TrEMBL record:
SUPFAM superfamilies: P-loop containing nucleoside triphosphate hydrolases. The keyword Cytoplasm applies. This is Cytidylate kinase. The gene is cmk. Keywords: ATP-binding, Cytoplasm, Kinase, Nucleotide-binding, Transferase. GO terms for molecular function: kinase activity.
Length: 224
């Protein structure tokens, strides 16, 4: 079974997707972390974030892996732990440019489909239900107000020692929404058959249970 969870930056996709995957015993794939890792790679190698050819040349042989830990999922780039690096402000502000590069998206989508081919999976991102897994049995589109998303991002950042004012986070999230929604390749949009969940006033437990209920209904329908 494939579960696709899409939505704008800071809508809680990753947090919810991890919990849903754990409850269902599914594999979890954080597609955003893959694009963030490519962005960190570009920074480390001194590659311009818009240089598609150079990024692709470096990306082709780059191993991106995930490893579960008690504190959450760890992300590795060629064996280097980049879990914190991919959440730094420079990465966050430039990942939209890297992820908009057509060949980069093509390569990442190939990798993501490969992961999903042989597993029950929960995958979150911007274009999972529309592009990566268009035949996913369950598609969720999560939304929340910019103010709510900024507050959530602020709390996450504080826990990681990243001190960015809430007002600045609101500006960055609104700009990220604009970039993600207007990019030429696989823009952020709700799949026609996705269920929209506004999490602005929901608890994490409520969000997870809502999705589990949707999955269970789909299973019952399939069995009947």
């Amino acid at each position: 079974m494939q579960i696709a969870i899409d939505g704008p930056a800071g809508s809680g996709k990753s947090t919810i997707a991890k919990l849903v995957a754990t409850k269902l015993g599914f594999i979890y794939c954080d597609t955003g972390a893959m694009y963030r890792t490519a962005t960190v790679m570009a920074k480390q190698k001194g590659i311009d974030y818009g240089d598609e050819a150079a990024i692709m040349a470096a990306l082709r042989g780059l191993d991106i892996t995930f490893k579960p830990s008690p504190d959450g999922q760890l992300v590795f780039m060629a064996g280097q732990d980049v879990t914190l690096a991919i959440r730094q402000e420079e990465t966050t502000n430039n990942v939209s440019q890297v992820s908009a590069l057509p060949k980069v998206r093509e390569e990442m989508v190939r990798r993501q489909r490969e992961i999903a081919a042989n597993h029950d999976i929960v995958m979150d991102g911007r274009d999972i239900g529309t592009t990566v897994l268009p035949d996913a049995e369950v598609k969720i589109y999560m939304v929340a107000s910019v103010a709510t998303r900024a507050q959530r991002r602020y709390k996450e950042n504080v826990e990681k020692g990243i001190m960015t004012p809430v007002a600045k986070l609101e500006e960055e999230i609104a700009e990220r929404d604009r970039k993600d929604s207007t990019r030429a390749v696989s823009p952020l949009r709700k799949a026609a058959d996705a269920v929209e969940i506004d999490s602005s006033h929901m608890t994490i437990d409520d969000e997870v249970q809502t999705i589990i209920d949707i999955v269970n209904k789909k299973r019952l329908k399939t069995q009947n």
